[in-house]
Amino acid sequence: MNRTEIRAAISLASVYVLRMLGLFMVMPVMALLAQDFKDYSPLLVGLAIGGYGLTQALLQIPMGMLSDRIGRKPVILLGLAFFAIGSGIAASADSLLWVVIGRMLQGTGAIAGAVMALAGDVSRDSERSKVMAIIGIAIGFSFYVSLLIGPPLANSYGLEGIFTVTAFLAMAAMPLIWWVVPNATNKAPSGDTLPVLEDIKRLFFDQNLMRLNMSVCVLHMLITILFMQLPALLSAHDYTMASQWQVYLPVLLLSIVTMAGLMSMARRGKEKGVLLSAVLLLSIAFLGLGILSQQFLLVMLFSIVFFTGFNYLEANFPAMVSGIAPAGKKGSAMGVYASFQFLGAFIGGAMAGVVTQYASVEVLFVATAFICLLWALWLKGLQTHSAAKRFSLPIELASFDANVLSEQLGALKGVQDITVISEERVAYLKVNGNEFDMGKAQQIVSTN
């Protein structure tokens, strides 16, 4: 990567960390602190934890498309402003209902698509995947850090303190966007970075992509359900809110080690089996927490089991979506995927609230374990694909017929899928990298 790409990757990753810390820090503490509100109810707690997911899901695709019209930076700054305003409302809330309203307003800052598109605009095609990978690592990093710093911060300053810090983090990200993130020197092919409205319906009904979209929806439903109850379980075992990070730290570290074992098995050609095993680990974890949570060591064990499966699936689903998506449709596929991801957080909060309010925590966990078993059965129908490489080739021909050009490119060895966009003068290719000859492809799009 050149200096501009390194600067873009680090600054955009920093923006993501500042924003996601604010979203995640509240997860391990909300269920405990919400009890201080007069209008406390399990349903409102669930919505306070997962409510941001509904507005994120609804606005993820529109905000990305808006950035294509008015520019990336204006949309990102607008999203950060709404996020900061929502944080301020939640910080000053005197009722749990207003916390829910603040969280939903936080979700209107749906800037993921615009950030990824900007990352694509300021990076070369050959280096774009590295920039995206750095941003992806930053997102995962922010989740782990939030679990460690959220409880001590909330113990000292309460929910007001957490949301106030969140608002300041969002405002701190604004100067980074305006002055540090490089201005776009080119425009990345939109099919690789942004959702396209006419593609969404087609991709929505693709069976393999729908299995992955529903899977990430369930996965984020599960993580929201877990954090509705795990803080209370730890409190029951004499871990105060300020000391719960002492549990999360070894749980996360051990789960990363065990996840590495799953990834090693997947690399040996057992990807489908490992995928189903990870889902079954989630089922085992919830069943165990539902019926064997009286002993602290078992709570630790089942938490490690949960995060082993969660970490593996969270890391691998995006790559699988990217691999399955047709050529030139990755931006649309990832936009739909992200919408389902955030929708899962909302469903998880609502489900946990309703079941806990009208039944019990044990019923919630056992029911969730059963959902995981149904999920595993449904996921068996997923057709996994070998890793494919993607290229976007600018068409330099003075005039061309898109159908003829598609046939010529399709005749090349190793080409799996082609999309030619005449208006953009771009050919998107999905290829087997071991067989594909880039030189021949470039010759086709550059000579009459």
UniProtKB/TrEMBL annotation:
Record keywords, A-Z: Cell membrane, Membrane, Transmembrane, Transmembrane helix, Transport
UniProt name for this protein: MFS transporter
Keyword Membrane included in the entry's annotation: yes
Membrane topology qualifier: Multi-pass membrane protein
Organism, scientific name: Fluctibacter corallii
Regions that span the bilayer: 12-34, 40-62, 74-91, 97-119, 131-149, 161-181, 212-233, 245-266, 273-290, 296-313, 334-355, 361-379
Superkingdom per UniProt: Bacteria
Localization, UniProt: Cell membrane
UniProt cross-references to InterPro entries, sorted A to Z: MFS, MFS_dom, MFS_trans_sf, MFS_Transporters, Sugar_transporter_CS
Residue ranges constituting the Major facilitator superfamily (MFS) profile domain according to the UniProt record: 8-384
